[in-house]
Amino acid sequence: MTLKELRRNAHNRLKEQPNISSPELDADLIIMFVLDLKKDELLTKDISVPDALAIEVNAYLNRRLAGMPVQYIVGKTEFMSLDFIVNKNVLIPRQDTEILVETVIERYKNVSEQIRILDIGSGSGCVGISMARYLPNSVVTELDISEEALKVAVLNAEKNLVTKQMNFVCRDIRDGISDLEPKFDVIVSNPPYIKTDDLLELQQEVIEYEPVAALDGGDDGLDFYRIIIKKAVPKKGGMTAFEVGIGQAGDVADLMFKAGYRNIEIIPDLGGIERVVLGYAA
User: Fold this and answer.
1) Out of 59, 101, 121, 193, which could bridge 217 as a Cys pair, Cβ 3.0 to 4.6 Å?
2) What does the entry list as the binding residues for S-adenosyl-L-methionine (predicted)?
3) Is 134 annotated among the ligand-binding residues?
């Protein structure tokens, strides 16, 4: 079988599943993974594919047809133009979250002194590691309750050449951060914010494969905003920035104001959805 034939067959197989939103892209990612090809090689070469590799591709296509996210199948994804390792222990980074990272970078890119950043609920580390990469004078602490998630973050820090800028803390944020001194200039978080009753309405590939603990934000979706606002405060004048779910920006802004934050901003994503809420500690 030639590469072109393999691609055509793979595209057609995934197109048969209406719940797969990007069948051709997913098929190509699997083929590149199995055959160890770059995108330009996939598009320009028409090599003969050994039967064993074609069988392996089909096995991975079966996993995708069963609902497994392609990012877990190939073990990686892209975020902020950087490559990140992902597995079942961490959420798959979403493009929506890049707004949070870009917002912080924009506000601190001209700061010459060291910037101490705390990333709460770090998961794969995509948020904190991206900030470390694009803010070279930053020192980032990745905090997560999951040891397995932090193992992935450590690998991603190594992969993206920022290990020397990173610290890793395994902790429940409910226990606070009073022992982490000095205080942080920036606290960021993309916390669990899905209402518990809404979890079953998520796509199959999300609810069946991604860690539920990283999704469940309690009855109203705001549990972890309340906890973080109470337990993790930056230094005076420091910034806390959250990613928020659809329709949550006003509530999170109100929680921050009542806790003493000032100069609170709500920032939309490219689609006009209110996606980031930030404020400064008084």
Assistant:
1) 193
2) 121-125, 144, 190
3) no
